[in-house]
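Friendly challenge for the regulars: who can give me the structure tokens for this chain first? No prize, just bragging rights.
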Amino acid sequence: MSDASRDSVIRDPARDLAREVLIHGPIARGELGRRLGLSPASLTRLSRPFLDHGILVEAPERQDGVVGRPVKPLDVRVDAQRMLGVKITGERVFGVVTDLRATVGVSETTLLAGHGVEDVLDGIQRVMDALDAHDVAAIGASIGGKVTGSSLVVRAPFLDWHDVDLGAAIEARFDRPATVENDVVALTAAEQWFGHARGIDNFSVITIGAGVGYGLVVHGRQVISSDTGLGLGGHFPLDPTGPLCADGHRGCSSAMLSIPSMCASAGVGLGRVVDYDELLALAAEGNAVARQVVDTSGRALGRLIAASANLAMVETVVLSGEGIGLLGVAEDAVHAAVRADRDPDALPVEIRRTDADFTAWARGAAAVAIQSGFGLIPSAA
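First reply, four minutes later:
Bragging rights claimed.
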């Protein structure tokens, strides 16, 4: 279903206004006009439909810091719509319901019966049913792989998918707008608009989990290329003496930082299988093998953070993913490696850590659904 058949689209100036309020609100009309280059009359005209439909509201009166007179800022009515965000892995669907600023209300997880498209749609259905989310305005889905057009999954290795139009399939099953995006792109968008990097124009995102992901925002825009979704950040060289990754790269970021690789290294030394939580716990308790593995990975993480800051010239790095518990156990090793690889006169790198669970990934999916649809006024009946 096309946007034209779902909604009457408010043209770019109006959508820019709505998004500016979404990202920066509550915001005074004067400041909003300055940001968008709009006159007071244009601002009033463009904001009126959103106010009439209850999407924007006037926030409580406050004093203007410039002229000292009372003003009524514009803000988003965050409960005007609910969004469903789902993160799809090779085994599960993780789902959250959020408001219009991607604040998570409830979450749910379900196992996939298989890797077919219908299996995934059935998983989304179970999540929707469990969350009583049948009133959501849109669905966002994130997946580890290459996605184009916010719909077509070109490649998803964990599901063995090639050229699957997941967005169209979701819209056909659930009869509402769907946005599909690479999981790291979606998470980066959530951090930029609503999360730990809100208000920061230049930052990078590093994710640690089953693999290693990398996102970058420069001058307020996420850097997207034709190679986005191929997992290139997962093979950045970090240690020439490190273990091999599945692609044969020695000491790359995946070999040094992915959860499976860290657990495999610890298992060799311990002589038994160890999961990630136990690995971190053993390291914290002072187990020699676990401590060595964790500190080695911590140094690799510090090198990757420093490389991002040095090459992309960012001063803020957001860490996310289910593996970022590494930072808490190997913090000294991480920071020492960052300092070692940075010019002593360079500004310190600010490291911001998100939640270490799959909720952050599903929240990212909801965020791209918000980005895609916000500023569309429903058609009159």
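The chain has three domains: 3-79, 81-188+360-378, 199-353. The domain at 3-79 is CATH 1.10.10.10 (Arc Repressor Mutant, subunit A). Your move, everyone else.
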